[in-house]
């Protein structure tokens, strides 16, 4: 088991960023949350004028044994088909990634079937987790390997100059897995967390709540122990996402969280590496009810709210435009002094 050393935030850089923002040609605080984003990036990166040179988007893919219980609106093979689609550049995340000129990485950690050809990184740990209503989702070794692979694949992007990271996923059934994880960590009733995922019926929704309740009753995961939760009710891609987030936090690289699955992985990352949450911004608010509970637990607020519920990293990639506006603002605006603009009346 690794020890993740997440560095402390640079609170001095935050104070300096605030002082500098107040010198720019605008009434104090008038750029609202953009100013807050600048201050957060400043304390993460340790600089009053933070820059982002290159966005990275990493998407982890895996299948889920719990799909056997009829909890998704789509068949399991869609995971594999969407990985192929992403490898061809045809998924929504490819479009937003190109728009943001992002470095894109697609990693199979547990999709059913053979290795992929082409752009996909083949790092399959096993083909799908087990059905966690009947048995533990995976072994302790598999959890640790998945976290390690996520960590390593994030480092590959950082070596290419990536200095801000979106962590996305694809995996049919993973809103059920995420509901179980967030219920385990927060202690909340699954009825408050379980949503409609890819678009199930009301009857299926009632069934999905019962599946999550029964699984938690059966496994009794330790809410303090992210490894235990992943082993019992987790997902391979979610463990890898947590690993990638730990790599980013350990290297003072800002993470942009996406929807429900990404935020569930963030809860696990924080449980494994205390302080990782300090390096996270929340891109958007997903339509999944459990997403709000999970981000409130992490103490986050979404940058945008666009009624999205796709996953893949799409909400985070869209929100990156706003983060980029904040970074441009602090680096390019004139100060009252440099522009010769009069200050506020005394
Ligand atoms: O990010 C979200 O909040 C989100 C909400 C609903 C669905 N998804 C995506 O849809 C898949 C999981 O949905 P489901 O219904 O199969 O559990 C998975 O591939 C996710 O990327 C993602
Ligand atoms: C089509 C489709 C695309 C997805 N992207 C992420 N999850 C998905 C689920 C479905 C069903």
Automatic annotation (TrEMBL):
Pathway connected to this protein: Nucleoside biosynthesis; alpha-ribazole biosynthesis; alpha-ribazole from 5,6-dimethylbenzimidazole: step 1/2
CDD domains: DMB-PRT_CobT (cd02439)
Broad class of enzyme this protein falls into: transferase
Signal sequence interval, chain numbering: none
Reactions listed under catalytic activity: 5,6-dimethylbenzimidazole + nicotinate beta-D-ribonucleotide = alpha-ribazole 5'-phosphate + nicotinate + H(+)
Alphabetized GO MF terms: nicotinate-nucleotide-dimethylbenzimidazole phosphoribosyltransferase activity
Record GO biological process: cobalamin biosynthetic process
Keyword Transferase found: yes
InterPro entries: Nict_dMeBzImd_PRibTrfase, Nict_dMeBzImd_PRibTrfase_bact, Nict_dMeBzImd_PRibTrfase_N, Nict_dMeBzImd_PRibTrfase_sf
PANTHER family, sorted: NICOTINATE-NUCLEOTIDE--DIMETHYLBENZIMIDAZOLE PHOSPHORIBOSYLTRANSFERASE (PTHR43463)
Family, per entry: Belongs to the CobT family.
Function: Catalyzes the synthesis of alpha-ribazole-5'-phosphate from nicotinate mononucleotide (NAMN) and 5,6-dimethylbenzimidazole (DMB).
Name under which the protein is recorded: Nicotinate-nucleotide--dimethylbenzimidazole phosphoribosyltransferase
